[in-house]
Amino acid sequence: MAHAKTFRVVERDGYRVVDLKASVVSWGGDAVGEEQFQRLVLVPREQTPPPLTGDLAGATLIRTPVMRIASNTGFHEAITKVLGVNDRLVAVGGVKSYDDALRARVRSGAVRQIGYGWHSPPALDALVASKPDVLLMSMGDMKNVGAKPRVEALGIPVVPIFLDNEPDYMGRVEYVRLVGMLAGRETEAEAFVAMVARNVDALKKAAAAQPIRSVISAWFSGGDQWNPVIRNADAKLLRDANGRNPFEGPDDPRKDSFNRISTEELIARGRDADCWILRDSHSQPFTDRAVLERFKAYRDGCLFAADGMTKPEADAFDYYETAVIRPDLVLGDIVRMLHPALRDQPFRYIRLDTRAPQ
Q1: Which of 132, 151, 303, 339 could form a disulfide with 353 if both were Cys (CB 3.0 to 4.6 A apart)?
Q2: How far apart are CA 17 and CA 350, in angstroms?
C-alpha cells in the first residue's frame, strides 16, 4: 500500500494476511485507550485455510469473496458502491444514506439497521439477524471497542476500519483496495485508486503553477469555540491546493484533524487569510458581523462552506460518504476556491457561503 499507514497486506501461499493497527481518537481530541490491533487471514472459499497457529494464532479467518456485508458507517457504503457490491449490504447504520436506492432498501426493511458507529455500538439483534459474512466496523469511541469481542463471539468476523486515522487522504482511498480484496473486486479497486491518484496529481500540478494563497478552515461550535483544521488529511488537502494554513501543525494520527480555539485566537492567526471555509454540517450559526469584518476573507468575498451535495429531507450528506474516498473532488473545490483562474467547472462539496451575515 503506497499511502496507507493503518494497515498492511502480506501475500502468502494463495491467501493474504492483513494487519490493521490504530488508536481510537476522541472527536476534536487525542487518542483514548490502548492502540487497537487486528490480524485478518483472507482465504479464497475454494482453498483449504491454513491452521491459525504460530503468527496466525488469534487471527480472524475470512473466506473470500464475502457475499453478505454489514457496515456501521456511511463512507463504507460509498466504498461498496464504487466496487459495485451495494447489493451485498445486508445491514447498515441507518436510513441516512445519500444513495436513494440503498436508503429505500433500508426503509423497506430489506437491509437491517444496526446503528452508526459514531454514536453507539452495533445493535446485536439486528446484526445477527442480517447473517453477515463480515462487519465493516468503524470505532468512533471506546464503546465500539468494547462491543467488538461480543460481535466476534457471535461468530461474525470484524474488519476494523481505521480510515480516519490516516494522515494522508490517499491513505483513506487505499481502504477501497482492502474492501476490494474482501469482495473479490480487486481489479475495480485498483482502477478506482489509480483514477483518484491521477486526478489529484493533475490538480496539484495546476495549483502549484498559481501564486500561493493563505486559507483557513474553521467552523463555529458555539460559545466562544472554533474548530480550525490543523493536521493530517484535511490539512494536507489545503496544502496540496497550494494554500498556506496559518493554523497548520505537525501531522499526528493520534490526534483529530482539528482542535478547539477561542475567537480571539482565530482573529489573531486567521484574520489575514485570503479564503475561509467557514461552515459544515456541524456548525452553529455565527452572526456577529463585527467579528467577521475583521477577516480579509469575509471582506473580499472568499467565504466558503462545506455544505454541497446534501439531501436535507434524508439528513444525508455526501461529504461524509463519497467525498471521503474522492479527495480529488474535494481538492478540486479547494483549488477553485483559492485560484479563480482555475474555476473551469462548478463547485461540488465546498461552495460559496450563502448564510453569512451580509
Answers
A1: 303
A2: 38
290: CB partners within 8 A, 6+ apart: none
Q: 3.40.50.1980, 3.50.50.60, 1.10.10.350, 3.40.50.300: which CATH number matches 209-352?
A: 3.40.50.1980
pTM equals 0.96
Q: Classify domain 7-184 by CATH architecture.
A: 3-Layer(aba) Sandwich (3.40)
CB-based burial, 253-262: b 16+ in 10 Å, e otherwise: bebbbbbebe
Whole-number pLDDT of residue 181: 98
pLDDT-above-70 percentage for the chain: 100
Residue 344 burial class via C-beta count within 10 angstroms: exposed 0-12, middle 13-18, buried 19 and up? exposed
